[in-house]
Amino acid sequence: MSSLLKFCDSSDNYDSSRYVIFGVPFDATVSFRPGEKLAPNEIRKASYNMESYSLYSGVDLKNSGIYDLGDLDEHKRSEDMLEEVFSVVDKIVSDNKFPIMLGGEHSITYGAIKRVRSKVIFIDAHSDFRDSYLGEKYSHACVARRVSELIGRDNIVSIGVRSVSPEEIEIGTQRFFTSFDVNEDKNEVKEFLRSFADSSVYLSIDFDGFDPAFAPGVGTPEPFGLNPMIIMDVLRSVGDKLVGLDLTEITPLYDNGNTAILAARMVQEVVSFMEKNRK
Ligand code: MN
Ligand code: MN
């Protein structure tokens, strides 16, 4: 574990914490724009620009039990990275704490789901359902497929999809709502989520799910994306069932700063929402 920088308002005590943040500086399978391994620290830096008080939830993040473990080691092989993600999430979940992973590319999610085994909500422009991509089974373009092998494709839903390969159309994918669906009628998504998340659910946010106007610093940007406010709808629908969170695919090399700020605020709003529900 490394990184001297800590997420804003994180306490210095692991044992009494409820939310454990860690970075996964991994971008070895990136297909277009690299730099995702630099994101964890940029998100941490951005977190210092915000008030600790969430007006939305009415919660002050100071003393709300955030602990920042720092970053995992850098790995070249996906398998090595996934093994380390699994063991860190295993430790956090076994200690009854809530894991928050700062990616890194989207492939990191598989390591967490291997441990939590809950249903998964993806925010993503892509279905990520290829069997392999550029010869790599653990590519960021295959993460939903790998996760489906663990928990079944009926236990996955993606929101914001607008880029799917002919191969994926042919073999079929997980259930998804396109960004066009969301734009037309958000209520359908909210209703679906409420019935989908009957027990526990993990939220995996690939930042290319949002429109490039909101999140320009991502590896594979796609126009016609989601408004980040969708996260509030997700929280209102399934916020009391969340068992883990990750934020992936951000690359500071292409960011004007806004993507990292959005990520930092999103971590704060999710924690605030959960803290409010806890009380
Ligand atoms: Mn994507
Ligand atoms: Mn993805």
Short description:
By secondary structure, this protein is α/β, with parallel strands linked by helices. It has helices at residues 39-47, 78-94, 109-116, 143-151, 166-171, 179-184, 186-196, 230-238, 258-278, and strands spanning 19-24, 53-54, 59-60, 66-71, 98-103, 119-123, 156-161, 175-178, 201-206, 242-248. It is built from nine helices and ten strands.
Distance between the termini: 32 Å
The main pleated sheet reads as: 8 strands, parallel
- The number of strands is 10
Q: What proportion strand?
A: 15-25%
CATH class term: Alpha Beta
In CATH, the homologous superfamily goes by the name Ureohydrolase domain
How big is the Rg? 17 Å
Domain module count: 1
Mean pLDDT over the residues: 95
Query: Helical percent range?
Result: 25-40%
Helices, by number, come to 9
Bound molecules: manganese (II) ion
Which H/E pattern describes the elements? EHEEEHEHEHEHEHHEHEH
Structural class: alpha/beta
What name does the CATH topology carry? Arginase, Chain A
Shape: globular
Poorly predicted regions are none
Outline the structure in words.
This protein is 34% helix and 18% strand. The protein is globular. It has helices at 39-47, 78-94, 109-116, 143-151, 166-171, 179-184, 186-196, 230-238, 258-278, and strands at 19-24, 53-54, 59-60, 66-71, 98-103, 119-123, 156-161, 175-178, 201-206, 242-248. The protein has nine helices and ten strands. Strand 2 (53-54) and strand 3 (59-60) form a beta hairpin. The chain is of the alpha/beta class and 279 residues long. The chain has one domain: Ureohydrolase domain (Arginase, Chain A), CATH 3.40.800. The chain has an eight-stranded parallel β-sheet, with helices on both faces. The chain has a two-stranded antiparallel sheet with strand order 2-3. Bound molecules: manganese (II) ion (2 copies). The site of one manganese (II) ion (MN) has 7 residues, from loops.
